[in-house]
Design brief:
Two copies of one chain form a homodimer. Chain A is α+β, with helices and mostly antiparallel strands. In chain A, 46% of the residues lie in helices and 17% in strands. A four-stranded mixed β-sheet of chain A has the order 2-1-3-4. In chain A, a hairpin with a 2-residue loop joins strand 1 (46-51) and strand 2 (54-60). In chain A, helix 1 (3-9) packs across helix 7 (133-141). Mean pLDDT of chain A is 91; it is low at 1-14.
């Protein structure tokens, strides 16, 4: 599987128009992307989480200002929304983001399980201004032995035993 | 592209034996996975970040105890290591994790850019105890219109203008 085939699978779907309220939320995410850049927080990305017509979480990229490579706009907004709503699940929320989520943020979104995601710029447009999203998408599909960062699999009986203990444990809290 | 083809692309590579020191780090990650489960922090996952033979960051899963869907072991360990080392890049570090990283953590790892990743359990073993890693890997490769969480692309001139401003800005800090 190569980069171009991965891209081919991910062409944006054509969608309906946004309502004025939805456009307002998308433009708030874009405004945050501008503010984050202007204030030196990090890259030009912003995000809001919306529940029942109200913003419950906001974020802009803060990687370079906080020395946290995970502080992307979506991760920051999801963490803030979850803290505010006292939950680790955003089932009845929508996420508006100024750019198509990178693989890390896509994963974070799937774990938070919102209702939908609305985005403006694409991963290809991010790649054009030198953000590695598209490279990481292609690495995910590379055979593990061909990845630019070497991944080594070392099965371990103790690790497997922890998984088995979890699975047998009736008190486990699923997420 | 379907789930089985994604799996086929990602078979673990065969690797050499770990040194006694490397095994110690992997087993520390496994120990953290057990401790995190036993203390009710979250799922059975642990991770350490190692630089020059020393652990500089540790983490276990804390999703359910902190209401943070992004608090996976790898994200927690990467954030701790970056804070300690005062950097957003872990170029000379190795990451030892009790389980193959999920897509979110894989993305976090690529943004942190460590030297290598060593893991014990696989994504398929995680799926067998009801963690959605494998599902999310397949969703990444689904056409956006076929995803279980709807993604909607709405190009916006203001969003594009922010990207262009970033690209033209000589003071931008790359990451």
């Amino acid at each position: 599987m190569n980069n171009s085939s991965a891209n081919l699978c991910n062409q944006p779907q054509s969608t309906n128009m946004l309502s004025p309220e939805q456009l307002k939320f998308l433009e708030r995410a874009i405004e945050l992307s501008q503010q984050g850049m202007d204030s030196g927080n990090g890259g030009p990305f912003g995000c809001v989480v919306v529940q029942n017509g109200k913003i419950v979480g906001e974020g802009n990229n803060r990687v370079t200002s906080t020395n946290d490579p995970t502080a992307h706009a979506e991760v920051v907004a999801i963490r803030e929304a979850c803290k505010k709503l006292n939950t680790f699940q955003l089932n009845d929320c929508d996420i508006y983001t100024s750019c198509e989520p990178c693989p890390m943020c896509l994963g974070a979104i799937y774990w938070a399980r919102p209702r939908s995601v609305i985005y403006a710029n694409t991963r290809e447009e991010a790649a054009a201004i030198e953000f590695d999203d598209d490279f990481i998408y292609s690495e995910i599909n590379a055979a593990i032995g061909d990845r630019k960062i070497p991944f080594h699999h070392h099965p371990n009986k103790k690790a497997k035993a922890v998984f088995e203990a979890w699975h047998k444990w009736s008190g486990r809290k699923k997420y």
